[in-house]
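ESCALATION

Customer reports they have been waiting on this structure for their group meeting. Please prioritize. Original submission:
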Amino acid sequence: MGLKTLSKLMDAQMIKRTLMRISHEIIESNKGTQNLVIVGIRCRGAYLAQRIAELIGEIDGAEVSVGVLDITLYRDDLTLVAECPVVHSTKIDFDITGKTLVLVDDVLFTGRTIRCALDELIDLGRPKNIQLAVLIDRGHRELPIRADYVGKNVPTARDQSVEVKLKEEDKIDEVVLMAQEG
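Update from on-call: job pushed to the front of the queue and completed.
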């Protein structure tokens, strides 16, 4: 049994508009970009973080540092994911201590991925604060985590999945709601 597409939630233009709105909200909420850094969770969160940083640059004229976080070794389900999980590198070549850090991911679901990211970030330094930006919030939280910036709230059933496709990885920008066939 495979997955079937139930509906297209966002197309390329909608993703672009949503990231523009999130970028404006980040600037407004933080009263500018001073001491602001952006870190994306590998892999699609990293691409979204880069896009948001570029949009903030277009809006505010500021260059915002962008990093990539690989949470593989921080996962609480590491042994369930794969016998030999593939670990990529975390690439944050700036000090996060004292910064306002915006953590970016594609889909917020149970909150466990974000918990892992927070654990790793705290091991790297002590930001002034950490804010969370997600393209999709699909609910079903298992931990008390919420996003500060949400592109779209999508109520889902537990057996459904939200698939974010980005041109950097998938050659297309779209978000689809998926379910098991049968």
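Sent to customer with the following note: The beta strands are 3-10, 36-41, 65-69, 100-108, 129-137, 149-153, 160-165, 174-180.
Escalation resolved.
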